[in-house]
Amino acid sequence: MALRFTSEQRLDDRVLERGFTLGEIPGFLWTPSSAAAPTPLILLGHPPIGLHTMYPRLVARARHAAADGFATATIELPGNGDRPLWPALEEARAELRRALRAGEPVGPEIIDPLVLPLVDTAVPEWRAALDALLALPEIDGPVGYSGGIISIGVRLAVVEPRIVAAALFAGSFVPRAIFEEARQVTIPLHVLLQWDDEGNDRQAALDLFDAFASKEKSLHANMGGHAGVPQHAADAAGQFFTRHLK
Amino acid sequence: MALRFTSEQRLDDRVLERGFTLGEIPGFLWTPSSAAAPTPLILLGHPPIGLHTMYPRLVARARHAAADGFATATIELPGNGDRPLWPALEEARAELRRALRAGEPVGPEIIDPLVLPLVDTAVPEWRAALDALLALPEIDGPVGYSGGIISIGVRLAVVEPRIVAAALFAGSFVPRAIFEEARQVTIPLHVLLQWDDEGNDRQAALDLFDAFASKEKSLHANMGGHAGVPQHAADAAGQFFTRHLK
Q: A12: pLDDT confidence band, cut at 50, 70 and 90?
């Protein structure tokens, strides 16, 4: 798929933001203005609520990474934002909302049709984005993956050898099949867990962390709900990438 | 109890080490040579294997803290090192070794007589050390506590208001009574857990972390056994104290 830049703006003296399309998929690339040599790249994962909604948080992460000398990029998830509506995804979301409202347990019959099709569709798109981004002269390996839907991060860590380190956010429901894939992950991992995350099963997150085969993996658990990740936890993730991508 | 300096040496241009006795208790104080103003203090906890054995590791921690602008101090635990033998402690240790060799579960009948008398005796001694150290012109509050027997750290966090932040190492057996005390801890905590610690119960460590009432608490779990704490985990503990003691 061809990458075509659609917009360009300097966020300040330090970061250049370029909007792009990859085929029909919208995305952003942020590069540190100061970079003399090609810079390592961090793919910024995000929750399935659309790039427009996520934009301020993504820019904050991009600025932080640029200060550490990293380029960052992201693409829209299938069925989200300006991409075509995906009826099966909408149905699966409605089913999850119904179960949460009813106070029912969220089991595989809800999680699997919600998450697995997203993973199956998104992962090849992120790999295609990687092909296109690494072809740019200003971007270089190695590549990190950070945040977003943890099941996408797990699959990418298994199938994409150019990703050498991942900071994962244990903050979404994980299909059983992904636990099996986790046993094949061997790259260094930095796993963030919000101890009282309302949209997450703490024991499942601990089990998933245990399942990873990586020799270097760290679990950073902090107080608070899904959106309450403290600044020092973001700083620690930055240090993790500095250790592994430089 | 009176603090009397017994030795003094510069470890290099950066750290001054002074041996002392507090009554009959031996200890060390390390201060950054560069410090112009009174410096905050971190009490360095350590496992009950004697200060002589721990010395190289304590000096490494003291150098690290001095580079961050902190004074550090430690005292010998009762029944350890050059302090008088404590027969009840030796019996409790022999009982633990016997159970571990026999592959028996380590229950309260072994943990409580091993740990609770140490906590009951050591905590007033560490508080007396704090009285003496804070009376020195070069030492100032606030005070942090770091590492060592986690039950001592928990008790100190409950009873000693001058300790405003603690980095605890979930690497030793914890009596049930200490879980109850943990519910009274409200200071910021940074808890380190070695995921495959052979001398520690992982689930108990997670339960203890859950029990703390602190609004700011972070659990940092890393791969490896008891002695395998990675350097980046030590760095993260240093950053925790920089956030809370400065």
A: confident
The better pLDDT of the pair B34, B150 is held by B150
**Rg of chain A over all Cα atoms, to the nearest angstrom:** 17
Residues of A in contact with B223 (CB under 8 A): 214-218
- Judging by beta carbons within 10 Å of its beta carbon (0-12, 13-18, 19+), is residue B93 exposed, middle or buried? middle
Count other Cβ atoms within 10 Å, centred on residue B222. Answer: 20
Show the tokens assigned to B26: 């031996």
Question: How far is Cα A18 from Cα A15, in angstroms, rounded to an integer?
Answer: 10
Q: Which residues of B touch A239 (CB under 8 A)?
A: 232, 235-236
Q: Helix crossing, B108-134 with B150-159: angle to 10°?
A: 50
Contact yes or no for B139/B117 (Cβ under 8 A): no
Asked whether the beta carbons of residue B220 and residue A223 sit closer than 8 angstroms, the reply is no
A221 and chain B in contact, CB less than 8 A: yes
Give which of A129, A122, A161, A155 is closest to A142, Cα–Cα: A161
B101: helix, strand or coil: helix
Q: Do B216 and A233 touch (CB under 8 A)?
A: no
Kind of pairing between the strands at A139-147 and A163-169: parallel
At residue B35 the predicted structure's pLDDT band, cuts being 50, 70 and 90, is: low
ipTM confidence: 0.82
Q: Provide Rg for chain B, Cα atoms.
A: 17
Contact B218 A222 (CB under 8 A): yes
Contact by Cβ (8 Å): B170, B196: no
Strands B39-45 and B139-147: parallel
According to CATH, the superfamily of the domain at B3-245 is Alpha/Beta hydrolase fold, catalytic domain (3.40.50.1820)
Is the Cβ pair B219, A220 closer than 8 Å?
yes
Instruction: Name which of A161, A83, A84 is nearest A127 in CA terms.
Output: A161
